[in-house]
Design goal:
The chain has about 500 residues and is of the alpha+beta class. It contains 13 helices and 20 strands. The strands form four sheets. It has a six-stranded mixed sheet, sandwiched between helices. A five-stranded mixed sheet has the order 7-11-8-10-9, sandwiched between helices. The protein has a five-stranded antiparallel sheet with strand order 12-16-15-14-13, with helices on one face. The termini are far apart.
Length: about 500
């Protein structure tokens, strides 16, 4: 990997294995995790404005927004690559917001996904609607909430020369210019896990079973553990019992030191509890005894094939080595070439895998569909704690002794509403307690609200745990007073009115 600079932007390059068109990736160290609930979609809208400005071109180009980075990719002659990069940088310097209506409409029709949404629920469970937890909350209407000023501010903060890296599969072409706006690399803080969630299981409105495990950014034992665990679980649930689809693995960089990995499978109807038991128990078994030598040898062969492809020895993608280098550059992570990574993977022992999983299980999060009640245990045999958002009356520590103003259904609605569909609210100085007809409770803390949408007389609140809760004044007596208290408690910049 060779390094130089152009107009103050770091440039990484390595020679392609054979002559051909030049490929380039202009990458910015910003993605969905750098947004907030009110600015969600800002990076995608910046990307859409730039690509709309580019129009149709005679060479290949594309762009993408990921959790941690935004990429503009081009392939063509050196002159075409130079012209493309110059145009992208110029558009970022003077963002073409005149295309806002067009870009917003297209993004609303075809909302991009930053990742397979199957990996998103555990992130939301762990972080709420912040940082990586925002992956879950991409919706087609979020772009309409953004103003030109908000998008300009986002671009001026994150799409700067200090936050950019250019990667090439050949020497930088003559005449390369990158006229990006000035600005440093923004301070990227790690998302803070929600209190009481790590080391638990919980229900979410999903049809999948998933497990989130955390590791160090460079930890070969973690890579081996997830590969072996995925193979075991897929063999038992898919190949042997036929109760689920295949296991997928999703990788998210929390910060320069830490990775979150999510293993996901979709069980057949009626088999979620069995699939969850297999996933959790196989994780415990691997933590106790480690993998077999045969499993580790299979992992090494898998890693060898993958890294050989990523380093350009396979035709379909020679960019993964450069993409690893981009990630390392953005986050300040040491870069290891394929040979070094393969040597590290081959040196992993069964005890290394067991030790990693024993550490990872202390803050793992197991996410299950509703009405699935397994009995997962910790490695020591005690019941694994539950951190589900809705809890039986009195089980939420914050609501156990809560007192305040009670809002019950008006008498007529109580007469016509089945008991299990009725509910009430308790307004406290710190927030709102929502109770359903079964006396299950969900608290909404005013200081944890990430976004509130006005929908006519009602409100939709994005809570600190990542749940969307609908509150309508007609559901309870004196409902207007309840809505007024909610409006007074939520800062204006967190409020959006749906048109």
């Amino acid at each position: 990997m060779q390094r130089t600079s152009a107009d103050g932007v770091t440039v990484l390059w390595q020679a392609a294995p054979a002559p051909g068109p030049l490929s380039a990736v202009l990458s910015f160290g910003t993605g969905l995790r750098d947004e907030t609930a009110p600015t969600l979609g800002a990076a995608h809208l910046v990307e859409a404005l730039v690509t709309t400005h580019l129009g149709r071109r005679p060479h290949e180009f594309t762009s993408s927004v990921e959790e941690e980075a935004t990429h503009f990719v081009v392939k063509g002659t050196p002159e075409e690559v130079t012209g493309f990069l110059h145009t992208v940088c110029s558009a970022l310097r003077d963002l073409p917001v005149r295309y806002m209506e067009h870009a917003t409409r297209l993004l609303g029709l075809h909302p991009p996904r930053t990742c397979d949404q199957r990996g998103a629920e555990p992130l939301s469970a762990r972080y709420g609607p912040h940082g990586l937890g925002l992956v879950l909350h991409h919706e087609p209407d979020m772009y309409a909430r953004l103003t030109p000023e908000a998008v300009r501010t986002h671009a001026a903060t994150h799409f700067t020369r200090g936050n950019a890296v250019l990667a090439l599969d050949g020497p930088p072409p003559t005449g390369l210019t990158l006229p990006l706006p000035d600005g440093p690399r923004p301070d990227r803080t790690a998302p803070r896990p929600r209190a009481g969630v790590p080391g638990t299981w919980q229900h979410r409105l999903v049809d999948t079973v998933s497990l989130l495990l955390t590791s160090r950014a460079h930890e070969p034992a973690a890579v081996a553990a997830c590969h072996v665990l995925g193979q075991r679980v897929e063999h038992l649930t898919h190949d042997t019992r036929g109760i689920s689809d295949g296991v997928t693995l999703h990788r998210f960089l929390r910060d320069r030191l830490t990775l979150d990995r999510v293993l996901v499978l979709r069980p057949a109807d009626g088999h979620a509890e069995e699939a969850a038991g297999i996933l959790w128990n196989e994780t415990l078994n691997l933590a106790r005894r480690g993998p077999t030598r045969q499993e580790l040898d299979a992992f090494t062969e898998h890693a060898r094939a993958e890294l050989r492809c990523h380093d350009g020895h396979c035709g379909h993608d020679r960019w993964m080595s450069l993409r690893r280098a981009l990630e390392c550059e953005h986050f300040g992570i040491p870069f290891h070439d394929a040979a070094t990574l393969l040597a590290q993977h081959a040196a992993v022992t069964p005890q290394d895998v067991a030790d990693h999983l024993q550490r990872a299980l202390t803050d793992a999060v197991l996410v299950l569909p509703p009405q699935v009640f397994p009995r997962p245990a910790t490695p020591r045999g005690a019941p694994l704690p539950n951190s589900t958002c809705w809890r039986v009356h009195g089980e939420h520590p914050g609501t156990r002794h809560a007192s305040g103003t009670r809002f019950r259904k008006n008498p007529l609605r109580r007469l016509i509403t089945p008991r299990d569909e009725s509910g009430e609210y308790l307004l406290t100085p710190w927030g709102l307690v929502v109770r359903d007809g079964n006396r299950d409770e969900h608290d909404i803390r005013f200081d944890g609200i990430a976004l509130m949408r006005r929908e006519g007389p009602g409100r939709v609140v994005l809570t600190g745990c990542g749940c969307d809760l609908h509150i309508h004044p007609d559901h309870v007596a004196r409902g207007e007073r309840l809505i007024a208290a909610l409006d007074a408690a939520v800062p204006a910049h967190l409020v959006h009115t749906d048109d």
